[in-house]
Amino acid sequence: MVIRSYLTTALRTAFCCIAILLGLFLPIESFADGTQNVGAGDKGYEPAIIEVLERLESGELERALSLVELHLVNHPKSRIAHLLRADILNAQGNPFYEIGQGSALPVKDLQGLKHQIKARWQHSKVHSLVAKEKVPSSLLHIGDHPYVLVADMQNGRLYVYQNSEGQPELIRDYYMSVGSAGYGKQVEGDNKTPIGVYHVNRYIEGKRLPDLYGKGAFPVNYPNKYDRFLKRTGYGIWLHGTPSTTYAREPWTSEGCFVLSNEDLLDVAKFVSAEAKTPVILSDHIEWVGRQELDRKRRKFLSVVNKWQSDWESVDTSAYLSNYTTDRLNFGATSYHSWAAKKKKLNKSKTFIQVDIDVEEMFLYPGETDMFVVSFKQNYLSNNFQSQQRKKQYWKKDNLGVWKIIYEG
Q1: 146 shares its domain with 276
Q2: Which of 28, 34, 75, 109 is a plausible cystine mate for 173, CB 3.0–4.6 Å?
Q3: 187, 299: one domain
Q4: Under a CB-based contact definition with an 8 Å cutoff, are residues 375 and 394 in contact?
Q5: Are residues 161 and 223 in the same domain?
Q6: CA distance 183 to 181
Q7: Nearest alpha carbon to residue 156 among 245, 284, 256
């Protein structure tokens, strides 16, 4: 990082402290910068904050002050901007060592604002190049979903991907806050945001909610079947807005929900639908891969499902059954041995089986090693039976490294 020669000793010290605070000297795994939503009449909330920080970096205090005051005209409830304005005024007449020095804010509030500044700065300055070429590895197959949401809870970011002829295309990203105790929800009241694959199941208008939830809410279907299998408890996990008293919440401040500013929530509402059951992938972190690598992964996991399909069509019951776990099948709801016996009896009367599947979605499951979930439409035809249904399967590698269906329903 180059410090311009005209900085005073005090400003040099100030910038170094800011840089250390914001993690500028730390080697951090790259991630993406999407298309920002820019409000009318200004550069947008986050770009304006970043420009103020850039002016501080270059020692242009007067310009930083004019920019932050303009930002406060557009966003008067921006607590970050109020904090930075106080710091800039303080730095004009005193040595400046760190953001928030001399602030009367409670320590927890000040730490939260610093954390938010760091998250926004890192996103803009450290992780901003990858999204043009890379995508989350979890997005194996988005089917006909028009949009998919992917949350990176480690770095406090929510990404919106559009379905572009079957390929995910990043169109938005937003600063996001999560549970006050972080993520990895286990029990009700632990104030953590869950990790997993979910879907939006309804919309609640802001006028029907307490002010805490802002301009509206999109609940997701936590706990899902896998959560219940793991005995995870709790409910009411929503994507929602912020109280009227503030623009954005600090990174870890909710009771387990994932939260956007009201401005961003209204923007993301253009892409999220309960009717379309918009998928929401709540990830502890995102693995970014190139599109060729994503295609390779997609083919790899589709081949796992296709093998199950061809084993079924072979009328070789043993081959078909080999695709299923014998340990707590369907998350413990099904006895493998009684179910397998029934399948063997049924298949004795089959002279042929034809199974056609149309994959609707397939995602790597976040927070788990070697696990994916797939949903599809199934058309089944045999010599004495036919049916049409939708299925969801959870696949996971067993101790021998073999893919097994652990749930089908």
Answers
A1: yes
A2: 34
A3: no
A4: no
A5: yes
A6: 7
A7: 284
Domain that holds residue 323: 290-408
Where would I find the beta strands (DSSP E) of 109-195?
Answer: 134-136, 139-141, 147-152, 157-164, 167-175, 178-179
Report the SS3 class of residue 140.
Answer: strand
How many angstroms separate the first and last alpha carbons of the chain?
Answer: 55
Q: Same domain for 33 and 177?
A: no
Last residue of a domain, one of 230, 259, 286: 286
SS3 assignment, position 172: strand
Helix (H) or strand (E) holding 255: none
Write the CATH number for 353. 3.10.450.50
Q: Enter the tokens of residue 270.
A: 């253009």
What is the tally of structural domains in the chain?
A: 3
Largest Cα span, the chain: 90
User: Does residue 1 sit within a domain?
Assistant: no
Does some domain include residue 245? Answer: yes
Question: Using CA atoms, how far apart are residues 24 and 120, in angstroms rounded to an integer?
Answer: 12
Give the DSSP letter of residue 289.
E
On the 0-12 / 13-18 / 19+ scale of CB atoms within 10 A, 248 is buried
List the chain pLDDT tens, one digit each, 409 residues.
322 322 333 344 344 444 434 433 222 222 233 333 333 345 799 999 999 999 988 889 999 999 999 999 999 999 999 999 999 998 888 877 788 887 888 988 888 898 899 988 888 876 667 767 799 999 999 999 999 999 999 999 999 999 999 999 999 999 999 998 999 999 999 999 999 999 999 999 999 999 999 999 999 999 999 999 999 999 999 999 999 988 888 777 788 999 999 999 999 999 999 999 999 999 999 999 999 999 999 999 999 999 999 999 999 999 999 999 999 999 999 999 999 999 999 999 999 999 999 999 999 999 999 999 999 999 999 999 999 999 999 999 999 999 999 999 9
Burial grade of 189 (CB within 10 A; 0-12, 13-18, 19 or more) = exposed
> Could you tell me if 177 and 321 lie in one domain?
no
Which ranges of 251-290 does DSSP label H, i.e. alpha helix? 262-268
Residue 59 near residue 15 (C-beta atoms within 8 A) = yes
Count the alpha carbons within 13 Å of 319 in the hemisphere toward its beta carbon.
10
